[in-house]
Amino acid sequence: MIKPGGPGHSGEVTGSAERAWLEEAVQPSLTALFEAHYDFVWRSLRRMGVLEAGVDDAAQEVFVVAARKLDRIERGAERAFLFGTALRVAADARRARARRHEVAEGSEVLDAVWATGPDLDELVEHKRARELLDRVLDSMPSEVRAVFALYELEGLTMAEIAVCTEAAPGTVASRLRRGREIFEGFSQRIRARTTRAER
Questions:
Q1: Which of 9, 79, 93, 110 is the 20 to 30 A CA-CA neighbour of 53?
Q2: What is the largest CA-CA distance in the chain?
Q3: Degrees to nearest 5, angle at CA 124 with 119 and 128
Q4: What is the DSSP letter of 84?
């Protein structure tokens, strides 16, 4: 296809050809989507309850969906589309895990020690912190969890979250408040338990 103004351009482009070129020009490429948003998708899936062992496969599924619908992703709305897709993929993964009664592998810490060789105490503490975060996120309703993770962990603005979650700004604000209440309540219980254990 000859692009308007390109070599061999006669100055006349049919309306349908010009529209087709313009649509092609504004569509995001799959490679660009992957390079720009893979880490965001990976973290989103993990924070929405996908076990670490399955996050890579789930992320691949998100981008497979994106590849099929590439012509429908608007420029500037890529992250919102990918997050919405990640939410659905994560929900499917949680349902599948519940059906299989999966549990996290207890050897994960030892595997990581042999693979990377960090200090064991540091690794165990990191794993414990991650497990606590998973537990508090798991205790939140999915819509509250999404807003809390996007705001507190990803650093998105309220306006960006409203676009990603397709929720009104007021709804986003109330969900964030609820998420913070749940998080604070969980933190207080952990602190109280730690204090009792140290006595």
A1: 79
A2: 86
A3: 150
A4: H
- Cα separation, 62 vs 89, in Å, equals 7
Distance in angstroms (rounded) separating the CA atoms of residues 8 and 17: 15
Q: Are 48 and 87 in contact (CB under 8 A)?
A: yes
- Judge if 147 and 81 occupy the same domain: no
Could you tell me if residue 64 is inside a domain?
A: yes
Looking at the structure, do residues 98 and 153 belong to the same domain, yes or no?
no
Angle between helices 169-198 and 158-165 (to 10 degrees): 110
Does residue 180 belong to any structural domain of this protein?
A: yes
Q: What gap in Å lies between CA 161 and CA 197, rounded to an integer?
A: 39
Decide if 29 contacts 66 (C-beta within 8 A).
no
Is residue 165 situated within a structural domain?
Answer: yes
Q: Tell me 180's DSSP state.
A: H
pTM > 0.90: no
Structure tokens at 92: 């499917």
Domain containing 64 equals 28-103
